[in-house]
Model the fold of this input.
Amino acid sequence: MGRELTSDDVNHLYDEWQKHEGRQYKRSIYVRGRSEKDIEFEAFKENLEEVIEFNKEHNSTFKKGLNKFSGMTDEEKKKLLNVDLDAKSIMDNNKHLPVIEASREDLPESLDWEAQGVLNPVRDQGQCGSCYSFAAVAAIEAAYAIKYSQKPPPQFSEQQLVDCTFKKIDLDGTIGNYGCDGGYYRHSLSYLETAGTKLLSDYPYTGTVGECKDSASNSVVNVTGIYTSTHQIGDVEAMKAALNKGPLMAYIYVNDDFYSYATGVYDGPNCRSDPTSCPVGYNHAIVLVGYGKTDDGIPYWKVRNSWGTHWGENGYFKIGMGKNVCCIEGSTVYATVV
Done:
């Protein structure tokens, strides 16, 4: 944009954003004397200015844009994330997992499981920090589709994992997940080895922690194995080999830049990436679904998020490969089903 935004510009963009996002205000909510809409407008204005400045001033491989988070305060955005998970302990635990058998020879130059039809449309975790359940379910749905050649696969229940792994004690004595305050897909997979997963239609998503309804009578599929792609941080070839068998669950560290991602290859400008270590913790679970190179030759991972189809590239994003951007190459897990 070649000129400074006027107040009329901001008001117009805000009105258009409200229509696009279907925002409605059925009742007045006041916080410290300010209405819900006033607070949202101020957040929108700040986010809009930041998006314009970033796209204009930064020579980055990705672009920012307006989306459903553009009217949220920082506090509201953080509700989407996991509690901070210790990256070192997660990677240490992964060393106890068997490595999936996958050949590194003759790997295709690019891969896209979404294009192959094994993934359902991206669903939205809402204001519940349940990304771990969405990552586990998306990976299991894809594993089912690949194993049984059923495209698209059945939709399985994220809510079952939110309810039934909440503070559940695992066999090794560790506490399970934290409901809408985050959790681990490893705990979710371990639970599904015995309980089996329900259909989404039988156990719909509410975005809150409820009573566990995990009777085995209507379980559809069980997890039969939990594997890691590699025990080494940044082993790109091992990750690519495993990914050719099916989508991989992974963790990343999300910071403020990520919410307004629109397109391109995310390079994590503020998440202290390191090719050989993970200097930050994890706070978000996602699913690797492919890889490739841009027309400019930039290698990337294609990743499925759980923030709905109005975010990013129809719910997906690309992130740089080979640099452990935001610790994405530190801990990847693959599950088998029956």
